[in-house]
Design goal:
The protein has about 425 residues and is an alpha+beta fold. The protein contains 13 helices and 22 strands. α7 runs antiparallel to α8. The radius of gyration is 21 Å and the shape is globular.
């Protein structure tokens, strides 16, 4: 089969690596891809939002399956364009991708179908939001309604902070049009866990849990980022939590979307908070998490192409999805100064030391080839160094050992990814 993957980050590199392991994959394309993906797939210079050009390419190159990695094209309707041209594509339709595309929609859905989540209110007017905050219990969480590269969330400890947050989101448009509407949510405490799942519109299959580290600095301090590292499985996702989620959250979400006429086929990412009252949904995403995919997919034993096709065909209940009984940790190597201001264009060395057969991966997120054919930095998050191990501590030791193999001028990383493992 000829496979096209849409996207250019570490998540898409992890998807490409999984597809490469399939006996069914004959030719792999990635649009637009990056310097690391180029070692697995033929990179195609078409942007992820150029739907018609991507569909033309898929037709001309006899692409049998397209896997969409990124949120923007899914929310924008790439699946609808491909399906209208009889092209097989893995991912939710525009109607279904609203689960991630609008936080107000997802919160209203959970409220309607009694799926546990934090209490909230939705606002379209900044002054009304500020008035509401005067009597709100602090801290509160402010969320831009639309897509904001994983950064459209502000946790505010005082009324003044929250008032300023409303101004940033709704008036200053810090997150662009994503802030035209805003959700104000109660602040939940507990352990945060991510669970990815495959869905075929009716059935759902859960992948192993993982846990992301969003803050830029050690100790979960600093600004929110797209993710500084992750580990899988999470020791805080117990059998008891799993049982409650299966009873109240996972299938309930799939059924709710179908009841709303928004049948969901693809990946649902459940962002969970394990509170004293039990697990609650923090957020939904409509695609693989990044960097969660970089620790979950390397552990997957089942052919990813088989799973994608089963989701598209509505036969997910007929397939068993197996994962290795081990652990994985990913440490993101970033450009110093990310996510605010950073330099790029620095040569990266040591990339040849990684061998997936030994359980070591280096997923490229922000890289490119320079004029001399050398791989250089091209973003804030540059690489995701992932390693497997017998257990979480073993995987963590392996991942940090591997970070020393790679070097570039303004290399920065957190040195406490997975430290919570010691507290479990």
């Amino acid at each position: 089969m000829n496979i096209l993957i849409v996207g250019s980050g570490g998540r898409e590199h992890a998807i490409c690596e999984s597809v490469r392991r399939s006996d069914k994959a004959q030719k792999i394309y990635c649009a637009p891809g990056n310097a690391g993906i180029a070692s697995i797939a033929e990179c195609v210079p078409i942007g992820a939002m150029e739907f018609e050009k991507l569909a033309d390419f898929a037709k001309e190159h006899n692409v049998d399956l397209t896997i969409v990695g990124m949120d923007d094209p899914l929310v924008g309707g790439i699946v609808d364009v491909f399906e209208s041209r009889n092209l097989k594509v893995f991912g939710p339709s525009k109607k279904a991708a609203i689960l991630e595309g609008s936080k107000a929609f997802s919160k209203d859905l959970m409220k309607k179908y009694n799926i546990p989540t934090a209490a909230y209110e939705v606002f379209e007017n900044a002054q009304e939001a500020i008035e509401y905050l005067k009597d709100a219990k602090m801290p509160v969480v402010l969320k831009a309604d639309g897509l904001a590269l994983g950064k459209g969330v502000l946790i505010c400890n005082t009324y003044e902070e929250a008032k300023d947050g409303v101004k940033q989101i709704m008036e200053d448009k810090k997150f662009g049009t994503a802030g035209s509407r805003m959700v104000i949510e109660e602040f939940m405490t507990g352990r945060e866990v991510s669970v990815l799942s495959y869905c075929d519109g009716k059935h759902i299959k859960i992948m192993p849990s993982s846990q992301d580290h969003k803050r830029a600095l050690n100790g979960d301090k600093g600004l929110n980022t797209g993710g500084m590292g992750t580990f899988s499985p999470s020791p805080f996702y117990t059998d008891e939590v799993d049982k409650i989620c299966k009873e109240k959250i996972y299938q309930a979400t799939v059924d709710a979307m179908r009841s709303e006429g928004r049948e969901f086929k693809g990946i649902i990412f459940f962002g969970l908070m394990i509170t004293k009252e039990g697990p609650k949904v923090l957020e939904y995403n409509a695609r693989f998490g990044d960097p969660e995919a970089q620790v979950v997919l390397p552990r997957m034993k089942t052919d990813i192409i088989d799973v994608c096709l089963a989701c598209i065909d509505g036969s997910l209940d007929k397939i068993d999805i197996e994962f290795e009984d081990n652990a994985a940790v990913c440490v993101v190597l970033a450009s110093d100064g990310y996510p605010v201001k950073y330099d790029k264009g620095f040569e990266i060395t040591g990339l040849d030391k990684f061998d997936s057969n030994d359980g070591y991966y280096c997923f490229h997120a922000g890289t490119k080839f320079d004029a001399n054919g050398k791989i250089v930095t091209n973003g804030g998050r540059v690489l995701g160094v992932t390693a497997k191990g017998n257990d979480l501590k073993d995987a963590r030791n392996n991942a940090y050992k591997a970070t020393a193999w790679v070097d570039f001028s303004n290399k920065y990383m957190r040195d406490d990814i997975g430290k919570a493992i010691d507290e479990a």
